[in-house]
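Hey, can you fold this one?
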Amino acid sequence: MDTLGSRFSGEGVIKAIANMHVRGNGLGGGFAIYGLYPENANYYALHIMYLSQEGQVEVEAFLKHRFHLIHDEEVPTRPTSAIVNPPLVWRYFLEVDPRECGEQSQDDYVVDRVMEINTGLKDAFVFSSGKDMAVFKGVGYPEEIAEYFCLEQY
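Sure. Predicted structure:
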C-alpha cells in the first residue's frame, strides 16, 4: 500500500503472495484493489460471474431497469492451466437514481440489488461491488488468480 495514495503495479504484491504458496490449499484466493477505476470513481463497479448467456441476459435486463448503465465490458482474462471451466466475467459501471432509493442510502440500495441477483437470478454471481475498487477471486492459489485476471496489467 502506498501511504501517499499513489498508484503502483501489483507485481510486487503478486510476487509476495506467491512466496506464501505452501501456506495455502488452492481452494480459493483473490485480491481487493482500491483506486482501480479513477475514470469511473463516482460509479458503482459490479463484477459478475456468469455460468450461461441466459444468466447474463437476465441480469443485464435487471440492471438496466434499476440503474443507469454508464459502461460495461468483459473483464480481461487469460487461459491458465490452473483455472478449469471458468465463468464469463463481466463488469458494469452503474449510477443509482436517488429517486429509486426511497429512504435507503445509495450504498444500501446497491447491496439490496446485489443480494437480489445473488439469491434470485439464475447462473449469475456478483462477486465485487463498490466504488473505485474491485475484487478478483476464484478457486486456486492467489498467484493463479492474478495470472488469470491479468492483474499485472492494472
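The radius of gyration is 16 Å. Let me know if you want another pass with a different chain boundary.
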